[in-house]
Amino acid sequence: MEPLISVNIFIRIKDIIFHMRLDETDLTILQELSENSRISVRDLSKKIGIPESTIRFRIDKLVKKGIIKQFTILVDETALGYSISALIEIRYDSAVNRDELEKALNSLENITVAYSITGDYDYVVIVKCSGIEELNDIIIKIHEINGVIRCRTHVVLSKVKEMYVNPVRYVGED
Questions:
Q1: pTM of the model
Q2: 2-72: which CATH architecture?
């Protein structure tokens, strides 16, 4: 069954490319910027063999179309004192306004990612903490949000894979 999922994702990405009219050059630029958003236009031009003016035009086009949402950095969370990562599943009362719950989750600084999901729980959030005490405080704050029925917390023991580079290198391959 796993290959079917990959095929479906591949087909969906090809549909997106068709509708956005991305070509191999756009994909190459996306891949390079995904790996190093600080690369200069000059260096990118030399690396992929395309004039600087074309690179600038293509990047501007990708930004205007919303394909590139932002240029950012990756921070070593441990170096900043966030030694604990956890996933917290949240079940909420469907009678409670979803917008209120999402606003409350967005207000908690330690939550770095929040997803609405299917299954036994309604949301999963990823939190970064300096220690167990801080994680406990976050769990308590989540439980205090109006409509939260139950939480289930999973503390990350080790990172098996953490991918920050967007998988654009797979797009367009047959």
A1: 0.72
A2: Orthogonal Bundle (1.10)
The candidate with the shortest Cα–Cα distance to 116, out of 142, 90, 150, is 90
Q: What are the strands, taking DSSP E only, across the chain?
A: 84-92, 111-116, 123-129, 148-155
Q: Where in the chain is the domain with CATH 3.30.70.920?
A: 84-155
Task: Answer with the residue of higher pLDDT: 47 or 15.
Answer: 47
Chain segment 76-129, per-residue pLDDT in tens? 889 999 999 999 999 999 998 999 999 999 999 999 999 999 999 999 999 999
Dist CA 126 CA 118 (whole Å): 16
Q: Kindly report the backbone phi and psi dihedral angles of residue 21, in degrees, each rounded to the nearest multiple of 5, phi listed first.
A: 55, 50
> In angstroms, rounded to a whole number, what is the distance separating the alpha carbons of residues 160 and 167?
17
How far apart, in whole angstroms, are the C-alpha atoms of residue 174 and residue 170? 9
> What is the assigned CATH class of domain 84-155?
alpha beta
Number of other residues whose CB lies within 10 A of the CB of residue 152: 12
